[in-house]
Amino acid sequence: MKYRTVGIFAHIDSGKTTLTERILFEAGKISAVGSIEDGNTESDSLQEEIERGISIRTTFHSFPWKTTFGEFQIQLVDTPGHIDFRNQVTDLLAAMETAIVVLEAGTGVQSQARLVIEELRKANVPMVFFINKLDRFDEDYLDTLVSLEEILAGAPVSLFQKNESGKLEFYLTHSAGFPKTVKEELISWSDELMISSWNDPSGQIDFSMIGLRTGPKAGKLYPVYGGSAKTGEGVRELLDLVLWTEPKDPKELTSSSCPLLVLSRRTDPSIGRYAVVYPTKDLDQADLSKVSRVLNKADADRTNTDPPLQFLNPDTEEEISELQKGKLVLLKNNEGLILLPGGPVSSLLHFESEGENLSADRSPSPFSVVMEPEESIDKEFWLCRLEGLVWEDPGYKLTNKEDTGQMVLLGRGELHLEIGIRRVMERTEKKLRFSSINIAKIELLKKMSHKVALEHRAFEDQKSSGALIAVLEDTADFSKQIAFEVSLPEEVKNSIETSFLEACLHGFYGEEVTGLKLRVLSYEMPKGDSVITLTLLKVAILAGVKELFASNTYLVGPLTEVEVMVDADHLGVVLSDLSRRSAKVVSIEEAVAGKSHLKANAPAQNLLGFSGALRNMTKGIGISWERTAFTYEFHAVLKE
């Protein structure tokens, strides 16, 4: 049996989950097609997914599929579309063999789809495109193809058309009915194929089918099918096309001493914590024993006391002792394992020996919420639940403040945090208090270069810190730097550095100051007690530098880009709400079916609650997508 891991990717609300549901029905995996509106789809099982009608976590489905050119076992991966859950998408890319990118007819390629296309190209994942919702927009997909061509910097090849009776025809099954130009497009990406076709005037070999098979893997051909996930039109043909194209070469997968890639982490009442794992090669019992020894032993002299690796069949949950390349399995967690999605299975020993930090935040977030239990005795209960949430989704980060008894949860966005809190509070009568969502802020030094003389006297002016001459200037980013243009004793340098960084902790607005550099030009240390002198020097720097912040820093925070698809009748009220939030409108474009596509940006703190307000303003019709970032090039000025 040939295994093929296929991921479904798209912008939010483009029909990924509906397509997954239809594929499972066509494959005989389910007896009836569920719907997002009814909350009964196979992919969306969490209460929050059902209530909100969006996918929150990646789901995996395995089923057989028979074609005219072979039998396959498809491992279908349905990914979340919302930007807040993007880490779940990027974590999968190393093991994706083929990608289905779902595009929505009647509009250009939307923002999240653009982003995922770029990521798939960087990961060398072959792509097949499916223009969805043709039952609603019929032939209105030209804008989609034009937009796709702009992103790919090359023309996608449309391989579907309507016949005389109005039914869709697809290239794999009706290639003879397609124009000659389509056949030429399928081989024009390869000089070798074109030359071979010229040398075969009899046409005995169909080089267009060879081009269609090999082009996507080479990253030179982008086939496009169309249809409707809701009605099922084009869905079976789409799967045949995916399986006809060559998959990503396993040799391109992440190489590691441990040939096991972690795709996702889960917790199950019956088996506990486990990871979904992709084997990059066949592993028999002896191979697995060797991998287990490598993971569980720091060196040859260490006694192996850790439990062996336990692999489970994802369908039956029965333990297995051999793995087949590309066949997804479950790996039960144990205390010695590190199962970080997006990387190979590793061990705690490896991280300790390499000096790596397990708590390092791979994707710093400006969004956080502070929580504390209503009853102090429930602290361990809530910590256990929060740690379980972070285990499943490393996009969260948890900090336990022992001194205050509070817990801080960081997330990738407003929606990410809202859903995380709701999930933690499900099915319990215990109470948890939590703050509103906090947004990170800093103070940025304004454009300046200010020369200062810093000195402090004490004991009736009998003692002096000595005069420190320095220049305070802005940097090209959010960094804080100190540079010495004079040779000084190490204890003096240390005193200057620590007091400068301490002065930056709380600026004029009470936030950390960044984007500045202290350049020390000269310093003469007075004679006398060096301890007193260095103490006075710290005071001089703290007082002098902080005094400059009042007029030379301004408050900045993360910026959010927002896209809104809204009925034209509601456009005015949405614009009014964005205006109250100090949003800057970038563009307004007319979309299909009387809808408007609006792009704007605003400080992230101003857009808190906007998604909920949009649903209320538009009676549930409006759709929004938000991307928040906080970099030197991408930030909002909050106050001056």
UniProtKB/TrEMBL annotation:
InterPro entries registered for this protein in UniProt: EFG_II, EFG_III/V, EFG_V-like, P-loop_NTPase, Small_GTP-bd, T_Tr_GTP-bd_dom
Protein keywords: Elongation factor, GTP-binding, Nucleotide-binding, Protein biosynthesis
Keyword Ribosomal protein: no
Keyword Protein biosynthesis: yes
GO molecular function (one): GTP binding
Domain Tr-type G positions: 1-251
Source organism, top-level taxon: Bacteria
Protein name in UniProt: Elongation factor G-like protein
Gene source species: Leptospira perdikensis
